[in-house]
Amino acid sequence: MLTIIVCIKQVYDPEMPLSLFQLTEDGKLIPPPGTPPVLSTFDENALEAALRIKDVQAAKITIISLGDKLAKPVLRKTLAAGADELILLEDAQFAELDSYGTAYVLAQAIERHGLPDMILCGRQAVDTDAGQVGIGLAERLQIPSVTLACQVEVNGERIVVERISGDGMETVALAKPALVTVSQEIGALRYPPVKALMAAKKMDITILSAADLGLAAMIPQRVHLQRMFVPQRNKSDCQMISDAGPEEIAQRLGEVLIRTLKA
Amino acid sequence: MGGAQQGMEVMFLAEMKDRTLADISPQMVTIAKQLSAQWGGVLSAVLFGAEVGACARTLISLGVAKVYVAEHPALEYYQPEAYLGALSQLVTDVQPQAFLLGHTALGQDLAPRLAARLAAGLVTNCVALQVIPETGRLQMIRPVFGGKARGMYLSGDGAIQLATIAQKVFEPALPDESNTGAIVNFASTIDAGSFKVQVVKRRTEDTDGMRLEEAKVIVAGGRGLGSAEAFVQLKELAGILDGCIGASRAAVDNGWLAGRLQIGLTGKVVSPQLYIAVGISGAIQHMSGCLAAKTIVAINRDPEASIFTMAQVGVVADWREIIPPLVATCRRLLHQDQE
Q1: Which residues of A touch B205 (CB under 8 A)?
Q2: In sequence order, what are the beta bridge partners of B129?
Q3: Which residues sit opposite B124 in a β-bridge?
Q4: Chains A & B: contacts with CB separation below 8 Å
Q5: Is B177 inside a domain boundary?
Q6: What CA–CA distance (Å, rounded) separates A2 from B301?
Q7: Which member of A221, A246, A258 has the closest CB to residue B325?
Q8: Averaged in consecutive runs of 10 residues, what is the pLDDT profile of chain A (263 residues)?
Q9: CB-based contact A250 B329, cutoff 8 Å
């Protein structure tokens, strides 16, 4: 049976306005207390890609999520949607890892779990937008990888990926095992039926700490996040065209457009 | 990879497009030159492809002291394994202080591979970089939370620091024919037969003959358009103004327009003279793809839409009432000019 691991990150809701966050003295952005995290949307797309494969062939989908203070009810949504197994790598040490450290821990966990036929990740996390953990993980596991998939199929030993390239689309093929990062074009994660949501609440999940993974006291990292800040955005002096009917507004706007183009 | 042996070189990957330098390359020169000056080192570039000689000379005229050149058929199109093999070999030999790539489709795919291969740190989509004089470390600033905030990162000890540079943030360097530099050919062993990822089919999508990144005028539509049919009207306006149409992610997600026309954080970064945003609320994820436009014009029904804090010209109205007479007005005004 085809084995798939999907890596999923929990993040603060990307739609939450920044004004609700508190920016601390030492440059940390803290969300309002009590707001549950959400699954990073591109990782949801990756899970959807896995589920579409499971729709047409026998497959076992394992979710791995890494962090500190993971929101179990939120992550259980992946089981309700159709994943078979949920493994949480949870440790205070995992709270603020850089991309390098994150790929390091994930690789360790996947090696212990056993390398699957395919690993799927979102193209980037919606909070940091760095886009490096997936590929870093593949390099560490020494398996080939493809980015920005908008369609993934598995035919026997071959994985066929439709991906977005700079100026168009590409179809690429590679042998299992491989890692694929998934883009939003693949489609949103299906909504689990209520029954499945109830059932998922009762499923067993695995929680592993740094010590369980046999990780040394210091996880290697490469870059240091000094602080976050909110950029001063100069509000533009927007010249409003108003107080007239549509025809008149269109006339005045048209004049502005043509003038701008000739300037 | 001891820091002591590191040459004081700042190296970047120059990208080509249709056998000339891609837009990002002169922008890369500007920031890489600043960093090499701050470190007191040499600025070098890497060029891959076929017939790269003219581009190498252009880079020298822009102020690059050393251009490493590898010409190989397998390097003409971006193939991750070919590029990664050749680059990691060169970077390991030269041991530059930092290696920069553009935050382009190519750079976003290649940089994380290179960082992992070299066990180096990488910070992507940097909008500001500087060397801290006391420590010689590189400080990098990049957008986080969809562009709503910024993160400030510092390079670690010893290893080479990698960064990708946001598009259209740095002014392109200008050529000066009196600049001199060296072209260094480096042999790279590429065994195309060993590649694990095979490209089965490559399709460049037709964009009505004009690339979004090069358009002088862009008429973009968002959620407020409500349907795919609505883009016909935007297309008409774009046609009259000799421009292209584009879309926000909401419009693409709804299937109204192809993904390649998406502008924003996960789409294209554009800098037209005129950007007409129709039915776009102004989410920062979208705006980070078009804030470099010279003039932004917003048409939106909601007077509170945040786009009005970023646009230079605004109209609060239903686009359905404005676009048709606007098309007529523009057509008339341009016609008058020709007479």
Answers
A1: 167-169
A2: B140
A3: none
A4: 232
A5: yes
A6: 50
A7: A246
A8: 97 85 88 91 97 98 97 97 98 94 97 97 94 96 96 96 87 97 94 95 96 90 93 81 91 93 85
A9: yes
Alpha carbon distances (Å) from B250 to A7, B254, B279, B309: 25, 6, 11, 20
Instruction: State how far the Cα of A158 lies from the Cα of A224, in Å rounded to an integer.
Output: 39
Q: Total structural domains in chain B?
A: 2
CA-nearest residue of chain A to B294? A260
| Residue owning tokens 């996390």 | A125
Cα–Cα separations (whole angstroms), residue A157 to A173, A178, B144, B170: 10, 11, 38, 45
Residue closest to B103 by CA, chosen among B71, B139, B129: B129
Which residues are CB-neighbours of A205 under 8 A, at least 6 positions away? A72, A75, A76, A79, A86, A87, A88
Question: CA A36, CA A70: separation in Å to the nearest integer?
Answer: 10
Q: Measured between CB atoms, which of B153, B297, B298 is closest to A223?
A: B153
Domain hosting B50: range is: 3-194
pLDDT of residue B2: 34
Q: Are B228 and B153 in the same domain?
A: no
Domain residue ranges in chain A: 2-208
Residue contact B112–A166, C-beta within 8 A: no
Low-confidence ranges of chain B (pLDDT < 50): 1-6
What does the pLDDT read at residue A50?
98
The verdict on whether omega for the bond into residue B133 sits within 30 degrees of 0, i.e. cis, is no
Q: Are A179 and A136 in contact (CB under 8 A)?
A: no
Instruction: Find the CB nearest B115 among A132, A144, A226.
Output: A132
Residue B16 falls inside a structural domain: yes
Q: Does A171 touch chain B (CB under 8 A)?
A: yes
The reply to whether B204 falls in a domain is no
> Pairing state of beta strands B9-14 and B98-102?
parallel
B254-to-A41, A169, B26, B225, B261 alpha-carbon distances in Å: 16, 19, 36, 11, 13
- Give the pLDDT of residue B222: 96
Instruction: Quote the pLDDT of residue B208.
Output: 56
Spatial separation of the C-alpha atoms in residues A26 and B152, rounded to whole Å: 12
CATH of A2-208, one of 3.90.180.10, 3.40.50.2300, 3.40.50.620, 3.40.50.300: 3.40.50.620
The reply to whether B144 and B257 lie within a common domain is no
Instruction: Label residue B216 exposed, middle or buried (CB < 10 Å: 0-12, 13-18, 19+).
Output: middle
Separation of alpha carbons A186 and A51, rounded Å: 11
Q: Kindly state the tokens that stand for B308.
A: 């009005």
Domain CATH number, residue B238: 3.40.50.1220
A168-to-A8, A150, B144, B259 alpha-carbon distances in Å: 27, 12, 27, 9
